UniProtKB/TrEMBL annotation:
<dbReference type="Pfam" id="PF00884">
    <property type="entry name" value="Sulfatase"/>
</dbReference>
<protein>
    <submittedName>
        <fullName>Arylsulfatase family member I</fullName>
    </submittedName>
</protein>
<dbReference type="InterPro" id="IPR000917">
    <property type="entry name" value="Sulfatase_N"/>
</dbReference>
<keyword id="KW-0106">Calcium</keyword>
<keyword id="KW-0479">Metal-binding</keyword>
<feature type="signal peptide">
    <location>
        <begin position="1"/>
        <end position="32"/>
    </location>
</feature>
<dbReference type="InterPro" id="IPR017850">
    <property type="entry name" value="Alkaline_phosphatase_core_sf"/>
</dbReference>
<comment type="similarity">
    <text>Belongs to the sulfatase family.</text>
</comment>
<dbReference type="GO" id="GO:0008484">
    <property type="term" value="F:sulfuric ester hydrolase activity"/>
</dbReference>
<keyword id="KW-0325">Glycoprotein</keyword>
<keyword id="KW-0732">Signal</keyword>
<dbReference type="GO" id="GO:0046872">
    <property type="term" value="F:metal ion binding"/>
</dbReference>
<dbReference type="InterPro" id="IPR024607">
    <property type="entry name" value="Sulfatase_CS"/>
</dbReference>
<feature type="domain" description="Sulfatase N-terminal">
    <location>
        <begin position="48"/>
        <end position="361"/>
    </location>
</feature>
<keyword id="KW-0378">Hydrolase</keyword>
<dbReference type="InterPro" id="IPR047115">
    <property type="entry name" value="ARSB"/>
</dbReference>
Length: 569
C-alpha cells in the first residue's frame, strides 16, 4: 500500500479484533482535535496557585508508594491524598521533557528532537514559542522559577526571565556540583553556574542546592500576598541527577544498603522529600494551600549506574523503553473533585500546558499547534482522557539501526530511524531504542555479575518492536511478528507525524561559549542582535578511530559506554 494512502489510515481492523476501542485519527481529525476543549471544565472560583515540582533522573522505583527501598513519606502522603498518575509519560532525557512542559509541543515541532542542549551550543528554546509562564502572565499570574533550566542560554533572550518568568534563581546547564555550583562540559571546560535573574550569583554558593532552592521558594511564598495575585512556581530540582552528593545526615538511614551508589542516591531522594514537606508547610503557613494545585513530576527515567531504579520496567534514562519514558507523577490539591485514587488516564508532559492555562482561566486555544490536551477533567473528576496517543519522538540524527530499512518497515517507514509511538494499548519502537534491560535493584553496582546476566536481553538484528503496554507493561513479549497489521498502522502514524516535523536544531559547539571567556561563569555569549544561521539538519561530526581487537566483555562495555547518556546529560 502506498505511503500516501496510509497517512490517514484508520484502525477499523483493530477495532474488529478488540485491541483498540477508538479510531486512530486522520490528519484532519488530529488538526481539528488538537485544540483543547474547556467546555466541560468545572469552574474554579479564583485562579489557583500552581506549584510544579520536577525532579531530575528519579526512577520509577525510587518512590515509596511503588514499593521502593527509599523512604519518601511526604511524597507518599501527598500522592495518597491526591491523584496518582500511573499512565504518565515524559521524555527519556532532560532538555526534551523541559521543552515539552514549557511549550506544550512534541520535540519534532520545536526542532529539539535530538539529544540535549549542550552548554556551548548556540541553541535554546525557539523564540517563536509562546511559553507556559508567558500564558500564565497574560492570565494575571506572578511567575517564578527556581532550579535547573537546561533550555539553552547562548543569548540573553534565551534566559528564563525573557521566556515568561518574573524571577529566576538556579543553574542554566544540565549538571552542577551541589555545593560549589561548578559545571563542566568536558575536561578543563568548567565554570560557575548559579544565577540570580540574569546575573551570576557569585556570593550564594556553598549551600546544598536542594536546601538552597527550597529556601528560595519559601522566601517567594513569604513575600507574596496570596489574596492579591495568583502565583505560579516552577521548582526544578537538580536532584537526583549526578554527582551523587548529599549531607551526611540523609545517608545514615541507608547505611545498611550494600550498594554505595544506591545509598547516596537514596539520601538525595530523602532530601528532596524533606524539601517538598517544607514547601507544602510554607503553602499552609502563608495561606496558599486551600487554593493551590501541587504537581509532582520526574523529567525522565532513572539511571541504574548512578543509583536509580526503574524496576520492574524495562530500560533506563536515555532509552525509549518504559523505564526511560514512563514517569512518576501525581497531583495534590484541595480543589480535586475525586481524590485519593489512582488514575490510569493516558497523560503526557505536554498536557500540562493547556491544563494549567485552563486552570488559570486562560485560553490555550490561542496557542496554535499544541500537542497537549487539557487533562483537568480526567484528573480531577475521573472523566475519560481526551488523549488517545503519544508520539514519544522521532530522532533522525540518532545512530541508525544497522538492521533497519524501508523494507523492514513494509515500505512505509525506514526502521533504521529511532522512533517510538504509543497508541491506545499499543506501543511501537523502531531503530535503536537504547539498551533494553530489566535491572533488578540487586543488580546495581557492587553486586555479582551474575545478576546482570539474568536479565540481559540483546536483539542486535531487530529494528521493530511492538508491545501491548496495557497487558504487558514490562515489555517482555514482542508482538511485532504476530501483529503486522498493528505495526503497519503505527508506522503510518509515524509517517504522518514526520511530515509535520521541523528541521533539527543541533548546531556545533561555539568556542565563544567557554566560561573562561565569561569571567569563569557559564552565561550568554552571543549578542541578541546577532543573527542565527540555521541551515536545516545539523549532522554530528564523526572521527576516525583506531580499531582494536577486544574480548567479548570489553567490546560489550565499549558499546555500552557509547550509547548510554553520560552523567553530565
Amino acid at each position: 500500500m502506498a505511503v500516501s494512502a496510509l497517512t490517514g489510515f484508520s484502525v477499523v481492523s483493530l477495532l474488529s479484533l478488540g485491541y483498540l476501542s477508538w479510531d486512530l485519527m486522520s490528519p484532519n481529525q488530529v488538526e481539528s482535535e488538537s485544540v483543547p476543549n474547556f467546555r466541560d471544565r468545572s469552574p474554579v472560583p479564583h485562579p489557583p496557585h500552581i506549584i510544579f515540582i520536577m525532579t531530575d533522573d528519579q526512577g520509577f522505583n525510587d518512590i515509596g508508594y511503588h514499593g521502593s527501598d527509599i523512604q519518601t513519606p511526604t511524597l507518599d502522603k501527598l500522592a495518597a491524598d491526591g491523584v496518582k498518575l500511573e499512565n504518565y509519560y515524559i521524555q527519556p532525557i532532560c532538555t526534551p521533557s523541559r521543552s515539552q512542559l514549557i511549550t506544550g509541543r512534541y520535540q519534532i515541532h520545536t526542532g529539539l528532537q535530538h539529544s540535549i542542549i549542550r552548554p556551548r551550543q548556540p541553541n535554546c528554546l525557539p523564540f517563536d514559542q509562546v511559553t507556559l509562564p508567558q500564558r500564565l502572565q497574560e492570565a494575571g499570574y506572578s511567575t517564578h522559577m527556581v532550579g535547573k533550566w537546561h533550555l539553552g542560554f547562548y543569548k540573553k533572550e534565551c534566559l528564563p526571565t525573557r521566556r515568561g518568568f518574573d524571577s529566576y534563581f538556579g543553574s542554566l546547564t544540565g549538571s552542577v556540583d551541589y555545593y560549589t555550583y561548578k559545571s563542566c562540559d568536558g575536561p578543563g571546560m568548567c565554570g560557575f553556574d548559579l544565577h540570580e535573574g540574569e546575573t551570576v550569583a557569585w556570593g550564594q554558593g556553598g549551600k546544598y542546592s536542594t536546601h538552597l532552592y527550597t529556601q528560595r521558594v519559601r522566601k517567594i511564598l513569604a513575600a507574596h500576598d496570596p489574596q492579591a495575585q495568583p502565583l505560579f512556581i516552577y521548582l526544578s530540582f537538580q536532584a537526583v541527577h549526578t554527582p551523587l552528593q548529599s549531607p551526611r545526615e540523609y545517608i545514615y538511614p541507608y547505611r545498611s544498603l550494600g550498594n554505595v551508589a544506591r545509598r547516596k542516591y537514596a539520601a538525595m531522594v530523602s532530601a528532596v522529600d524533606e524539601a517538598v514537606r517544607n514547601v507544602t508547610y510554607a503553602l499552609r503557613k502563608y495561606g496558599y494551600y486551600q487554593n493551590s494545585v501541587i504537581i509532582f513530576s520526574t523529567d525522565n527515567g532513572g539511571q541504574p549506574f548512578s543509583g536509580g531504579s526503574n524496576w520492574p520496567l524495562r530500560g533506563r534514562k536515555g532509552t525509549y523503553w518504559e523505564g526511560g519514558v514512563r514517569g512518576l507523577g501525581f497531583v495534590h490539591s484541595p480543589l480535586l473533585r475525586r481524590k485519593r485514587r489512582v488514575s490510569k488516564a493516558l497523560v503526557h508532559i505536554t498536557d500540562w500546558y493547556p491544563t494549567l492555562v485552563g486552570l488559570a482561566g486562560g485560553n490555550a486555544s490561542q496557542t496554535e499547534g499544541l500537542d497537549g490536551y487539557d487533562m483537568w477533567g480526567a484528573i480531577s473528576e475521573e472523566k475519560e482522557s481526551p488523549r488517545l496517543e503519544i508520539l514519544h519522538n522521532i530522532d533522525p540524527l540518532y545512530n541508525p539501526a544497522r538492521s533497519g530499512s524501508l523494507q523492514s518497515g513494509y515500505g512505509i517507514w525506514n526502521t533504521a530511524i529511532q522512533a517510538s509511538i504509543r497508541a491506545g494499548d499499543w506501543k511501537l519502537l523502531t531503530g535503536d531504542p537504547g539498551y533494553g534491560d530489566w535491572t533488578p535493584p540487586q543488580m546495581l553496582p557492587g553486586f555479582p555479575d551474575g545478576w546482570w546476566n539474568l536479565e540481559r536481553h540483546l536483539e542486535p538484528q531487530k529494528s521493530v518492536w511492538l508491545f501491548n503496554i496495557s497487558g504487558d507493561p514490562y515489555e517482555r513479549y514482542d508482538l511485532a511478528e504476530q501483529r503486522p497489521d498493528v505495526v503497519k498502522e503505527l508506522l503510518a502514524r509515524l509517517v504522518f507525524y514526520n511530515r509535520t516535523s521541523v528541521p533539527v536544531r543541533y548546531p556545533s559547539e561555539d568556542p565563544r561559549g567557554d566560561p573562561d571567556l565569561n569571567d569563569g561563569a557559564w552565561g550568554p555569549w552571543v549578542g541578541d542582535d546577532e543573527e542565527d544561521h540555521w541551515n536545516g539538519v545539523y549532522h554530528k561530526k564523526t572521527k576516525n578511530r583506531k580499531k582494536y581487537k577486544l574480548s567479548r566483555t570489553k567490546s560489550f562495555f565499549r558499546r555500552l559506554n557509547t550509547r548510554i547518556m553520560s552523567n553530565r546529560i
